Amino acid sequence: xxxxxxxxxVLTWGETPLDLDSHLYTPLIDGLSYHIYYLDKGTLSEVxxxxxxxxxxxxxxxxxxxIETFYPGTYIYKVYNFSGTESLTTSSASxxxxxxxxxxxxxxxxxxxxxxxxxxxxxxxxxxxxxxINTIGD
Length: 138
Known about the structure:
This protein has strands spanning 7-12, 20-25, 35-36, 42-43, 50-52, 63-67, 74-81, 94-99, 102-108, 117-124, 130-137. By secondary structure, the protein is mainly beta. The strands form two sheets. The protein has a six-stranded antiparallel sheet, with no helix packed on it. Strands 3-2-7-10-11 form a five-stranded antiparallel sheet, with no helix packed on it. It is globular and about 40 Å long.
C-alpha cells in the first residue's frame, strides 16, 4: 500500500458466471468523471489515480481496483455480470475493501434481486466513509 489514502477493492466469485466485472465511477476530478473498468483500466500515476489490475474472464477472480488518491465527491463501485448467464445471486461473489490496516468492509452478493448489475457501495472521497448499497438491478 502506498499513500495513506490508498484502498483496494477486491472482487472474487464462484465458478459461474464465468465473467464478472468491477466498475468504479469517480466524482468530478478537474471537471471530468472517470469510469474504471476493463475497457479503461485507469492509472495510478496520474488522474484519476485509480486502476483495475486484471480483467478476469474465467471464474473466481480476483479483480482488484486500486485507488491511490481520493477527491471530494462520491465514488461508486458496481459489479457487472458480463457473462449475462447465471444469476448474480448464485455467483458467491464477495467484495472486500482493504486499507493499510487490513479489511475494512466486506460485502456478499445479495441472494435476492434480478438484473445484471450489483451496486455494492459508495465512498465519500472527502471522509473515506463507505455507504453500503448492496442491491441488484439493471
